[in-house]
Design brief:
With about 750 residues, the protein is of the alpha/beta class. It folds into 3 domains: about 375 residues, Histone deacetylase domain (Arginase, Chain A); about 190 residues, Sandwich (Jelly Rolls), CATH 2.60.120; about 150 residues, no CATH class. The protein has 18 helices and 34 strands. The strands form 7 sheets. Strands 2-1-3-8-7-4-5-6 form an 8-stranded parallel beta sheet, with helices on both faces. The protein has a 7-stranded antiparallel beta sheet with strand order 9-23-19-26-17-15-12. The chain has a 7-stranded mixed beta sheet with strand order 30-33-27-29-28-31-32. The chain is globular and about 85 Å long. The two termini are about 50 Å apart.
């Protein structure tokens, strides 16, 4: 554990406004009313906070909560007192999740702590982050369950996916981590591993076998364990299954849900025969695998036992032990009569009904399924290195210090690092860089305020730049973006860009500037500047790449898929000099990863309703694609005309829906008519299918108008004779929020 720095994010600390409020709110809930106070009181009494970078958790914002939960559900959490009982029941706000005053506020604080801990890992500030008030793994997107009103686990994993290509989620709770598995069921970017009890009538009733669908098939591993399971078998199974998963999957980051309701005679679960030592061992193992680790709480319904166990887990991660005698503090009486750590959790163990050979054989079988999934999905290779990017973008210093030998017509040799004097001389030879707006190429400094030179105006005279540096950079980028090693990728020099203070480029997507172009590689040459961060967005995630802090002596690269919306923030001082390359390939272009979210699951639900002839689903569903296409290109090429983002999404959707003889999918043009006047808002849609990260346009201002689908293009076979069909925006039209009003400029 030497050198394994800790960042323990606590949502409860005496004397802090939000911490006191969290404890107060928790006392109004229906379970574990005193647990946060006992847990953090015991940790503080041992002085553990003095050895950690302890931070007070801040409430999650509405925008953060909307990354997973639906707006309607969050409104129900906030205004439950105004809802009739049937609506409360629909949102799961009854029985063990019955609402109480301050429910939304408590949910926001719970999620905020886990998001804050995850942010500590994403920033690189810490390698270990802990939020013991988190781990609410049963909350669904629009429904509470199992004492969980907000799924801080899913929200934290989504945040981690912005910094790592893959995340491994390990769940030690005696109850199956059903909602976390469900959230990532169609994705290979999150591997969920859950060890739990599975028996008739035992909540939540899922997790009897491995699952996953589409691209996520094989990436949800479930290991049911029998009543009475002891420490030795539990730790051995965790070491075998989770350790094997790390080796096969090679995650960039690990999330460990450390629910402790498997302790012997937990008053609610009453299933396994574990002691705190089992959880200590599992936590040490998870830390030993060398990935950034986010440790969350979970179940545990005897508060003194949960407090003792988690305190022991924390000191195990610190590499030491706690004194046996519990220090006197505000909650000291609850640890009597012996007031020692061992006495609190000492129980008669239940009868052990487990079979070690069967459990270990199940571990080996699950690992075999995982290796097959990795081979099928990743071409037999494991994930990219742990310090690489999030799968749609990447950045870092170039491995080599070799410089390009830049010579500019009319200026001569450009020495590096670039000086402000030479930058001004260089600017005099440049022109303002244009960008695409619709069918036009325009110059508008309010959108793009950057200077450029074409390759005809400069030379790179160092032969090693093209022979060694660029090919090496391309290999790094291929690995980080998840592109198959045997895929030929060429970096074609496109522009030299100069940014001065105030230079920027607003949100846009890159246009296809060369045949087979699928991405952009930028190499920023050494100079002293600040600002100019590259912000890349994809699938509801966002990554900010700050090259200025790395750039004084070494060139730095940034790369991303062209389909990803991105922007260059203003340079605040100095000058930024960047070579831009088009990343091109032959055949089918690589595409950014598509992480399925609720919209794909809505589609699957609709498809199932169609298949069951339930009559409850709409007869047609249209999803607006991210890009625009001509009717001719769609007629000639079908899905092959799609840009990579739309093509990857369409393939995922079609696979998820298992479109076949009973379901039809086709392309169409959608027209919107506003106040009786025809508008130019004509875009392409997949009819019968929807995309990820889309929101139903129920009450959005940009959903105003009459919509019609026409000009049909078949994906296979003859053209559908559907004619012109009206669309109901509230139920039949799905698009990303702000789709009609907020289309990003097409850029260079």
């Amino acid at each position: 554990m030497a050198g394994y720095a800790g960042s323990f994010t606590f949502a409860f600390e005496e004397g802090h406004k939000h911490a006191a409020r969290l404890a107060e709110l928790n006392r109004l809930s229906h379970v574990n009313q005193d647990r946060p106070a006992l847990v953090h009181g015991l940790i503080e009494s041992y002085g553990l906070l003095l050895e950690c970078a302890a931070e007070e958790a801040q409430p999650a914002s509405l925008e953060q909560l909307l990354q997973y939960h639906s707006r309607e559900y969050l409104a129900a959490l906030a205004h439950w007192a105004c809802l009739p009982q049937p609506q409360l029941a629909a949102f799961g706000l009854e029985d063990d999740c019955a609402p109480f005053p301050g429910l939304y506020e408590l949910a926001a604080l719970t999620a905020g702590g886990s998001l804050q801990a995850a942010a500590g890992l994403c920033s690189g500030k810490h390698r270990l982050a802990v939020h013991l008030d988190g781990g609410r793994h049963h909350a669904h997107k629009s429904r509470a369950a199992g004492f969980c009103h907000v799924n801080d686990v899913v929200l934290a994993v989504l945040q981690l996916l912005g910094s790592w290509q893959r995340v491994l989620y390990l769940d030690l709770d005696v109850h199956h981590g059903d909602a976390v598995e469900e959230a990532f069921l169609l994705s290979s970017r999150v591997l969920t591993v859950s060890m739990h009890k599975h028996a008739p009538g035992f909540f939540p009733g899922t997790g009897g076998g491995s699952s996953g669908s589409g691209a996520g098939r094989g990436f949800a591993l479930n290991l049911p364990l029998a009543d009475g399971t002891r420490d030795e078998l539990f730790v051995a199974a965790f070491s075998e299954l989770a350790g094997g998963a790390v080796a096969a999957y090679d995650p960039g980051c690990i999330v460990l849900q450390c629910g402790v309701d498997g302790l012997a005679f937990d008053p609610l679960a009453a299933s396994w025969g574990l002691t705190p030592a089992a959880y200590e061992s599992c936590a040490r193992l998870a830390a030993s695998w060398g990935r950034p680790l986010l440790l969350l709480g979970g179940g545990g319904y005897h508060s003194p036992s949960a407090a003792v166990t988690w305190a022991k887990v924390l000191v195990a991660l610190m590499g030491r032990q706690l004194p046996e005698d519990i220090p006197e503090h505000d909650h000291f009486p609850q640890y009597g009569p012996a007031f020692t750590l061992a006495s609190v959790t000492k129980r008669l163990l239940p009868r052990d009904t487990s079979s070690a050979p069967e459990v270990m054989a199940a571990c080996r079988r699950l690992l075999g399924e995982l290796r097959e999934a990795v081979a099928r999905t990743l071409g037999g290779r494991s994930a990219i290195p742990a310090d690489s990017g999030p799968g749609y973008s990447c950045s870092g210093p170039l491995p080599s210090r070799v410089q390009p030998g830049l010579e500019v017509e009319g200026v001569g040799r450009i020495s590096l690092p670039l000086t402000d004097e030479k930058a001004l001389e260089l600017k005099a030879t440049c022109s303002l860089a244009p960008f695409g707006r619709g069918t036009e190429t325009v110059v508008d400094t309010a959108v793009r305020n950057t200077f450029q030179l074409t390759p005809q105006q400069f030379r790179l005279t160092n032969p090693r730049w093209e022979s060694d540096v660029i090919p090496e950079a391309v290999q790094v980028v291929k690995a980080a973006l998840g592109i198959a090693p045997n895929k030929v990728v060429e970096a074609q020099l496109y522009r030299l860009l100069l940014y001065e203070p105030g230079s920027h480029f607003a949100r846009h997507r890159d246009t296809e500037k060369a045949p087979g172009m699928f991405g952009t590689l930028t190499i920023t040459l050494p100079s002293a500047y600040k600002g100019g961060e590259i912000v890349v967005r994809h699938n509801g995630l966002q990554t900010t790449m700050d090259l200025a802090r790395l750039n004084l002596k070494k060139s730095c690269f940034a790369a991303f898929f062209a389909d990803c919306e991105h922007e260059i923030l203003p340079v605040t001082s100095g000058h930024r000099l960047t070579l831009v390359y088009n990343l091109c390939s032959r055949g089918t272009s690589p595409a950014p990863p598509v992480v399925p979210t609720d919209s794909v699951r809505r589609l699957v639900a609709v498809a199932r309703q169609w298949g069951s002839r339930s009559g409850q689903a709409p007869l047609k569903v249209c999803y607006m694609l991210a890009h625009r296409y001509t009717e001719d290109s769609l007629q000639q090429h079908g899905l092959e005309a799609f840009k990579p983002e739309d093509r990857a999404t369409a393939q995922l959707v079609l696979e998820a829906c298992s479109v076949g003889a009973e379901l039809d999918a086709a392309l169409c043009l959608v027209e919107r008519e506003v106040e009786g006047d025809y508008t130019a808002d004509v875009d392409e849609a997949l009819c019968g299918c929807v995309d990820d990260e889309a929101d139903m346009a129920r009450t959005e201002p940009d959903a105003v108008g009459d919509y019609r689908a026409h000009k049909w293009v078949a994906l296979a076979g003859p053209t559908p004779a559907f004619g012109s069909l009206p669309l109901q925006p509230s139920s039949e039209l799905i698009h990303k929020a702000g789709y009609w009003a907020g289309r990003a400029d097409e850029g260079e």
